[in-house]
Amino acid sequence: MRTCPFLYGSIVLKREEVSTMLAIASEDERRVVQQYPAAKFRRVRSALASSGDLGSTLLREGTIDSSHGGPEYRLYIDAPKGVLRLVMLCPAGQDQVYLRALEWIGRGAVMMWRRDEGNVSLTASQLRVVGCTLFPRGVRQRVLESGDRELLVTD
Q1: Which 8-state DSSP code applies to residue 122?
Q2: Is residue 1 part of a domain?
Q3: Residues 75 and 142 in one domain
Q4: Nearest-CA neighbor of 74 among 110, 94, 102, 112?
Q5: pLDDT in tens, 91-135
Q6: Which domain holds residue 118?
Q7: Structural domain contains residue 145
Q8: By CB neighbour count within 10 A (0-12 exposed, 13-18 middle, 19+ buried), where does 83 fall?
Q9: Which residue stretches of the chain are H helix?
Q10: pTM score > 0.85 for this model?
Q11: What is the C-alpha separation between 84 and 32, in angstroms, rounded?
């Protein structure tokens, strides 16, 4: 029995075979059902979708297997080149507490894209600088004032 939630995320790039958020979600579910034939997924009404805070979102609840110890929630946030997929394995009976937390995390997600055509790949240090310069207004200043200079290290 799970006693605490487990959250992970990934960015799924859109490809010709899966070019929409719904297609990506359906492909994810197909893979799970292939491994756990009794798994069931259903769409859940999300406060994110109705708030208009983000673009297109999709929230799905999965009942995978009794060994999972509770439901699995998948929040998909659409972007032009890909989809941010946040997956939370939730303790049984604690859905409402942790579902609000998942939506809060989704609301705070910032997705950035870099135009890579013809550019050399960035090092990890350079990526930190790019991320720092692309933060929303005010966040960069707070990072600079915090004294956490490691975010600004360059090679």
Answers
A1: P
A2: no
A3: no
A4: 102
A5: 888 888 888 888 888 877 766 655 555 556 656 665 555 444 444
A6: 112-155
A7: yes
A8: buried
A9: 21-35, 47-51, 95-107, 124-134, 139-146
A10: no
A11: 18
SS3 (DSSP) at 44: coil
Number of domains in the chain: 2
Q: Can you read off the two tokens belonging to residue 131?
A: 């991320």
15 Cβ neighbours under 8 A, 6+ residues apart = none
Local structure of 67: helix, strand or coil: helix
Cα 152 from Cα 132, distance rounded (Å): 7
Position 65 in a domain: yes
CB 5 within 8 A of CB 98: yes
- The sign of the CA dihedral 37, 5, 111, 57 is positive
Same domain (yes/no): 103, 132: no
